[in-house]
């Protein structure tokens, strides 16, 4: 195993050595959400065209959302994006640096959605909101400057699970069927939390604590729901042949990588076009780190280029506004 790029490894070591907002034993969900937001706030907010806060119709009431629209002529293709954070953490504002980076890299519009979260709202609340958000965006595309015929779904980590599950529920032909699904180091098999892969660089990452925390998040999200359901574990979809084309990005040192690779293989076997972007030498969460090291910046640019080609049919031009390390 080769190990991480030296510049990227140096960044990770500095990051892990920095004091983080403490997570007190027995702390509340709100404490964990604040700590997660503080960690994401370390990433800069790069220019991303016009940024506009929205309120959209969710499955059970209004939802906060944010539109990122680059300067383009005519209606723009768009991705409806669901943030990560283990279903429990994260919101539109904390993931603003991530969506800005993806917008700058792709040159298409992104609509970031603040879906309902557990433990206040367990499954299927977040998924119901994801489906409703896609339908709302398609219906209201014209006033937002979006092209209703070129709207896909996207998400990272837990949000990747929501995007994949929403694509499955919306697969029937119709105006709300996503034209593309973009799954970024996604969680696709929720039957259990997989073990971490071997780490050649000996980084001080608390893998065992992360695993127990992920199990608690899954329990809060699912509350006894059958974990083999395709809308819970999209990897177990019995017939993926009708799903939209996919862009799947992985991270080499991510415990979720094997299931993303298996999902890509199943989609391809079913005749679904797949672009698999292997995040060689990278870790889960790299989308917020493109301004700090060359290797995550390269992966984000590759994701952006693939998205641009898929939604516009033409290669993406280099974006001088995108920050480079």
Description:
Helix content is 34%, strand content 16%. It is an alpha/beta fold. The protein has one domain: 3-Layer(aba) Sandwich (Rossmann fold), CATH 3.40.50. A hairpin with a 4-residue loop joins strand 1 and strand 2 (62-69). The longest helix is centred in the C-terminal third of the chain and has 19 residues, at 294-312. The radius of gyration is 18 Å and the shape is globular. The model has no long low-confidence stretch (mean pLDDT 93).
Helix content: 25-40%
What's the CATH architecture? 3-Layer(aba) Sandwich
Q: Superfamily at the CATH H level?
A: Alpha/Beta hydrolase fold, catalytic domain
By CATH, the topology is Rossmann fold
Class of secondary structure makeup: alpha/beta
Number of helices: 8
Mean pLDDT comes to 93
Number of domains: 1
Distance between the termini: 25 Å
Number of strands: 8
Give the strand order of the largest sheet, numbering strands 1, 2, ... along the chain: 1-2-4-3-5-6-7-8
- Which H/E pattern describes the elements? HHEEEHEHEHEHEHEH
Radius of gyration: 18 Å
């Amino acid at each position: 195993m080769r190990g991480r790029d030296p510049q990227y490894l140096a960044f990770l070591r500095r990051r892990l050595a920095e004091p983080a907002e403490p997570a007190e034993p027995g702390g509340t969900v709100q404490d964990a959400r604040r700590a997660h937001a503080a960690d994401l706030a370390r990433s800069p907010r790069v220019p991303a065209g016009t940024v506009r806060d929205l309120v959209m119709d969710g499955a059970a009431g209004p939802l906060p959302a944010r539109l990122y629209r680059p300067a383009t002529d005519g209606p723009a293709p768009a991705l409806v994006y669901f943030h990560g954070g283990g279903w429990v953490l994260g919101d539109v504002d904390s993931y603003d640096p991530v969506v800005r980076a993806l917008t700058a890299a792709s040159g298409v519009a992104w609509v970031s959605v603040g879906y309902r979260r557990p433990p206040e709202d367990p499954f299927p609340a977040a998924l119901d909101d994801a489906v409703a958000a896609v339908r709302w965006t398609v219906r209201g595309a014209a006033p937002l400057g979006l092209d209703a015929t070129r709207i896909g779904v996207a998400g990272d980590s837990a949000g990747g699970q929501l995007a994949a599950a929403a694509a499955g529920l919306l697969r029937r032909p119709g105006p709300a069927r996503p034209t593309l699904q973009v799954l970024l180091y996604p969680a696709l098999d929720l039957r259990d939390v997989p073990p971490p892969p071997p780490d050649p660089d000996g980084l001080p990452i608390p893998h065992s604590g992360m695993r127990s925390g992920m199990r608690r998040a899954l329990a809060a999200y699912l509350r006894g729901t059958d974990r083999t359901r395709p809308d819970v574990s999209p990897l177990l979809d019995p017939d993926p042949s009708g799903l939209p084309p996919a862009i799947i990005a992985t991270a080499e040192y991510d415990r979720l990588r094997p299931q993303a690779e298996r999902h890509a293989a199943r989609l391809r076997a079913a005749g679904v076009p797949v672009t698999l972007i292997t995040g060689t030498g990278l870790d889960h969460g790299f989308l917020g780190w493109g301004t700090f090291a060359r290797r995550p910046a390269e992966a984000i640019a590759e994701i952006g280029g693939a998205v641009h080609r898929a939604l516009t049919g033409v290669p993406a031009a280099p974006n001088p506004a995108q920050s480079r390390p």
